[in-house]
Specification:
Elements: E1 5-9, H1 14-29, E2 33-38, H2 43-47, E3 52-55, H3 69-73, H4 79-88, H5 92-102, E4 108-111, H6 117-125, E5 128-133, H7 162-175, H8 181-189, E6 209-211, E7 228-230, H9 246-253, E8 259-262, H10 274-285, E9 289-292, E10 308-311, H11 316-319, E11 325-328, H12 332-341, E12 345-347, H13 354-363, E13 367-369, H14 377-389, H15 391-406, H16 409-423, H17 426-429
Parallel strand pairs: 1-2, 1-4, 2-3, 4-5, 5-6, 6-7, 8-9, 8-11, 9-10, 11-12, 12-13
Helix pairs in contact: 1-16, 5-6, 10-14, 12-15
């Protein structure tokens, strides 16, 4: 297939950027001309990988300029609503206009779940469109019910069956209806008929939905869109290879495997007492500890014992395989790397898809879960002790790790994208995007 121009659009944290950047690099290696269209703050990161970048609003807020914003967006009950209503929807028309410009002359559009302008653009221009889902929760399956952050109690073992969940999700559509009023207004302004809500089904492309995670995290269900393909995680290899900071590399070589504590790239901005409690938990167990604290100075402990080290960043593929266990927030990207490393996990979910990912880790027998508000030194130590003392967790994690490492998420997804390109009518491929 001759090179095609493919626009990949996304919004969110690094966990939302990296899968699409990995796909862009995979498509570029096949001779295509990929463009990553997302928040302006990521320009340097994308272009540094040699991939074309185009800005699409909204940009990500600066956490230093608005220190109270991240806790609002990471709130367990209201965080997802606030991202949709306060961050994404106010810029929807601007997002549409930016994405329209970015898609000029494009052959295909690949969208992230929060890029609500993408399905509108596909309708108004006829451009070929592939959607994606980063985590299983987005499918709202009655056959594999998710842990919904503001109603986690419903997902405890019970006799609730698919009929209950179908009714619950129907009710959920009504409860989030007000979130998407701006989207419905833009549809009318573009001359489009009423469509399915973009959160509940309207964001799924009719030809192909890429489930960008491992089948070890969730298997395709009969009530998922039939055009869904589970690809495996599209891992993005670290820029410049997987080199560890020298001080961390020395620390790892000076003693037994440590417990790694990380909160990814978003929750780390709202860490609270996580790192302080983690240090205390490791000390109670007599375990060495690695703290990945990010750039927020508040996360750096005032003093560090000899059994611990704190660094802002380390590449997960180099660090995680050298851990005894990994304690993290349950973001799907961090979860994927921990699964690939084959190490047991203690998951401390903060918000969004994280409680559901945590529950799946526990059901797979590769980890345990402690709620953020229940994470104390004593409880963390107790849960880690169970993980580290029971060899069943390590055995199962090793099995899952071998399975995930055998998957080729980027290749499978790129194969499917190329197949979707072949299915796009030639008249559309030779045209240029033009919105109403």
């Amino acid at each position: 297939m001759s090179g095609k121009r493919i626009v990949l659009t996304t919004y969110g944290s690094l966990g939302d950027l990296h899968p699409y950047l990995a796909l862009a690099l995979g498509l570029q290696a096949r001779g295509h001309d990929p463009v990553v269209a997302t928040s302006a703050v990521y320009r340097e990161r994308v272009e540094g990988r040699g991939v074309r970048f185009l800005p699409v609003r909204p940009d990500l807020p600066d956490p230093e300029a608005a220190p109270d914003l991240v806790p609002r967006l990471m709130d367990l009950r209201k965080g997802t609503e606030r991202i949709v209503r306060e961050q994404v929807m106010p810029s929807l028309r601007a997002s549409y206009d930016d994405l329209l410009a970015a898609s000029e002359g494009a052959d295909l559009l690949v969208s992230h779940p929060l890029t609500y302008a993408a399905p509108l653009l596909a309708e108004t221009t006829g451009i070929g469109w592939v959607s994606s889902m980063l985590a299983p929760i987005g499918f709202f399956s009655a056959l594999d019910p998710p842990v919904v952050p503001n109603a986690a109690y419903l997902s405890r073992p019970s006799l609730l069956g698919p009929a209950f969940w179908r009714v619950a999700f129907w009710g959920g559509r009504w409860s989030v209806y007000r979130w998407t009023a701006t989207w419905r207004g833009l549809r009318r302004a573009l001359g489009l008929p009423p469509g399915r809500d973009p959160i509940f089904g309207g964001g799924n492309a009719p030809g192909l939905v890429l489930a960008l995670f491992s089948g070890a995290l969730a298997t395709k269900q009969a009530d998922w869109p039939p055009q869904t393909l589970v690809t495996g995680f599209p891992f993005l290899d670290p820029d410049g290879g997987a080199r560890l900071p020298p001080a961390l590399d020395r620390f790892l070589g000076e003693g037994p495997a440590p417990v790694v504590f990380t909160l990814g790239s978003a929750a780390v901005l709202d860490a609270g007492a996580f790192y302080r409690y983690s240090l205390e938990a490791a000390a109670r167990l007599g375990r060495r500890a690695v703290l990945l604290i990010g750039s927020d100075h508040r996360n750096r402990p005032r003093t560090l014992p000899d059994h611990a080290i704190a660094v802002e960043y380390a590449p997960f593929p180099a660090l995680f395989p050298r851990a005894a266990a990994i304690v993290h927030q349950g973001g799907v990207g961090t979860t994927g790397w921990a699964m690939r490393a084959g190490r047991p996990m203690l998951v401390v979910p903060y918000a969004h898809d994280q409680p559901d990912n945590a529950a799946r880790v526990a059901r797979a027998g590769i980890g345990r879960v402690v709620g953020r508000n229940r994470y104390t030194p004593s409880r963390a130590a107790a849960e880690l002790g169970r993980l580290l003392d029971d060899p069943a967790f390590a055995r199962r994690a090793d099995e899952i790790g071998r399975r995930v490492r055998a998957e080729e998420g980027v290749r499978v997804a790129c194969d499917a994208i190329e197949a979707a390109l072949r299915a796009v009518p030639s008249a559309v491929r030779s045209g240029r995007a033009s919105g109403r």
